[in-house]
């Protein structure tokens, strides 16, 4: 994968006010993400936890991918995590504030997912 | 000769984005544009400012090109769906007369704003061309300023006295601070009265659905709390269609008391309106505790009112203000009903309003609620448009939509999708 260009897509997405952290997660591979010092999370441990558990997520995600699993959301205290699946073993993951206007952010998440799909 | 072109920029910097928009318009049209409808998301407020954005657009356009528009929650065009960036629709016709108007202080003195805007627009009345339309953008609803409170969405108190006090504060905030109700129908009425043979098509400018601030574009100037409008006269056929995805459920609701320019409902069936609403839904007030779920929950189940032709229109709950059911646009009629919709129904609105194959161009105005509801599923709506159209189109998402067909009253809605196509 052309990592630098992927990184550009992620960094563009991270410039959105309500995208607090973002990564391209891949099963059994190192995730691509902008430098954590660019993240806007008050509690950076959440992102570290997400990174360290991604393979566990993919074990579940893979089971549902044949059924058309496309997105996964979950609320995590003051944050919300959005998973936009790119394939069974790749996902665009973003952390947003719990009170964000999710619909508007989803549109830009979708644009980033489409950009990444073109690069893969 | 008739040409239309869509320009778009995704650049973050206001000047870069403005230049890109201007350059695209010039390169895509063979002739100088007769007018430009220009929109951007609120982002440029923090990335250079809207004056720089507009200066940059105008630096690339021929002098005195009429430009109107403003900030919107997002947009869709032939290239994709976006909630950040800028887009424009530029049009040339060798048989077209164009006028631009502006009026200020729309929330404090809407009638004067409408009359001021009308002054320049009246030139299209005497145009030799048969079809006339006013395309306008009015500063949309903003969150009111209440003492000691940042953002009021839920006040859990069904006491009517508290409700009336909130109504008083809402009216005061609108008139004194120009934070509150947009009063679009009052702004537009002087224009309707004089340009009675004109279509009207417009929307309320907004930000990223947070309703803090919004801006209007008028040629080279940026305004707040204003109306900016384009009067066009030409000979092509105009098609204007409007639709929404809601349907009535339950028993009719009567004995309605409305306040604040018909934007709050104080009573329904003789009960505090919010109490009656929750009873009709069969929902507990405890659902109000989680404010972050507020709009997502209630967007699909609003109260609706019937207009004079017995068509029902949604009035989505924007704020639960004591006994008041607060909404962004006027609640039509005195017979109300509970409505329901789904994401799929919101997508399928397009089937009812979509132009016949390939008009010269289509300009859509949709409610920011639809954008918020559909999120990335908006691309499904776009697929439906792309199956039918290959000509230029632009859809913008606003805080309230209004339109008028000659001979009919002005209609000021929310949660609708509207299209103006030139065929």
Spatial order of strands in the largest sheet of chain A:
1-4-3-2
Q: Which term fits the overall shape of chain B?
A: globular
First-to-last CA distance of chain A: 6 Å
Overall pLDDT level of chain A: 91
Structural class of chain B: alpha+beta
Count of DSSP strands of chain A: 4
Q: How many separate structural domains of chain B?
A: 2
Q: What's the count of strands of chain B? A: 28
Largest sheet of chain A: 4 strands, antiparallel
State the main characteristics:
heterodimer, A: 120 residues, alpha+beta, 3 helices, globular, B: 423 residues, six-stranded mixed beta sheet, 34% strand
Describe this structure in words.
The complex is a heterodimer of chains A (120) and B (423). Helix content of chain A is 42%, strand content 24%. With 120 residues, chain A is an alpha+beta fold. In chain A, strands 1-4-3-2 form a four-stranded antiparallel β-sheet, sandwiched between helices. In chain A, helix 1 runs antiparallel to helix 3. The model of chain A has no long low-confidence stretch (mean pLDDT 91). Chain B has 423 residues and is an alpha+beta fold. Chain B has a six-stranded mixed β-sheet with strand order 1-6-2-3-11-12, covered by helices on one side. A six-stranded mixed β-sheet of chain B has the order 5-4-25-24-28-14. A six-stranded mixed β-sheet of chain B has the order 7-13-8-10-26-27. In chain B, a hairpin with a 2-residue loop joins strand 21 and strand 22. In chain B, helix 3 runs parallel beside helix 5. Chain B is globular and about 60 Å long. The model of chain B has no long low-confidence stretch (mean pLDDT 94). At the A-B interface, helix 3 of A face strand 5 and helix 9 of B.
């Amino acid at each position: 994968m052309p990592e630098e260009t992927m990184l550009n897509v992620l960094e563009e997405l991270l410039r959105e006010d309500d995208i607090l952290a973002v990564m391209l997660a891949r099963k059994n591979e190192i995730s691509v993400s902008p430098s954590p010092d660019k993240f806007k999370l008050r509690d950076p441990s959440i992102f570290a936890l997400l990174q360290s558990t991604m393979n566990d997520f993919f074990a579940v995600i893979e089971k549902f991918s044949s059924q058309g699993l496309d997105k996964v959301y979950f609320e995590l205290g003051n944050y919300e995590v959005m998973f936009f699946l790119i394939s069974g073993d790749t996902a665009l993951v973003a952390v947003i504030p719990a009170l964000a206007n999710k619909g508007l952010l989803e549109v830009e998440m979708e644009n980033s997912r489409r950009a990444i799909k073109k690069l893969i | 000769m008739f040409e239309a072109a869509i320009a778009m920029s995704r650049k973050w910097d206001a000047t870069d984005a403005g230049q890109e928009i201007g350059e695209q318009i010039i390169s895509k049209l063979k002739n100088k544009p007769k007018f430009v409808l220009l929109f951007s998301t609120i982002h440029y407020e923090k990335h250079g400012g809207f004056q720089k954005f507009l200066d940059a657009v105008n630096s690339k356009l021929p002098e005195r090109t009429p430009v109107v528009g403003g900030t919107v929650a997002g947009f869709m065009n032939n290239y994709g769906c976006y909630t950040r960036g800028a887009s424009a629709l530029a049009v040339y016709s060798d048989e077209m007369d164009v006028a631009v108007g502006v009026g200020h202080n729309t929330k404090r003195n809407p009638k004067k704003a409408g009359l001021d805007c009308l002054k320049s627009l009246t030139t299209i009345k005497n145009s030799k061309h048969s079809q006339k339309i006013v395309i306008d953008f009015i500063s949309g609803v903003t969150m009111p300023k209440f003492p000691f409170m940042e953002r009021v969405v839920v006040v859990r108190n069904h006491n009517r006295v508290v409700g009336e006090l909130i109504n008083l504060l809402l009216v005061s905030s609108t008139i004194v601070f120009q934070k509150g109700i947009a009063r679009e129908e009052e702004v537009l009425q002087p224009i309707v009265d004089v340009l009675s043979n004109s279509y009207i098509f417009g929307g309320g400018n907004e930000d990223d659905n947070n309703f803090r601030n919004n801006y209007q574009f008028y040629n080279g100037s940026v305004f707040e709390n204003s109306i900016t409008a384009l009067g066009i006269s030409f000979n092509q056929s105009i098609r204007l269609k409007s639709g929404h995805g809601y349907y009535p459920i339950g028993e009719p609701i009567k004995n309605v008391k409305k306040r604040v320019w018909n934007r709050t409902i104080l009573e329904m069936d003789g009960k505090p309106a919010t109490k009656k609403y929750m009873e009709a839904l069969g929902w507990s007030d405890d659902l109000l505790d989680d404010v972050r779920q507020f709009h997502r929950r209630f967007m699909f189940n609003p109260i609706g009112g019937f207009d004079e032709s017995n068509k029902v229109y949604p009035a989505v709950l924007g704020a639960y203000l004591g006994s008041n059911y607060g909404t962004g646009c006027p609640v039509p009629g005195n017979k109300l009903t509970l409505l329901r919709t789904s994401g799929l129904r919101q997508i399928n609105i397009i089937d009812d309003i979509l132009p016949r194959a390939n008009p010269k161009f289509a300009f859509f105005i949709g409610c920011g609620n639809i954008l918020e509801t559909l999120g990335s599923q908006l691309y499904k709506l776009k697929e439906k448009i792309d199956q039918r159209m290959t000509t230029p189109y632009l859809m913008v998402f606003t805080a309230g939509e209004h339109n008028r067909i000659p001979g009919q009253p002005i209609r000021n809605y929310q949660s609708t999708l509207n299209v103006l196509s030139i065929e």
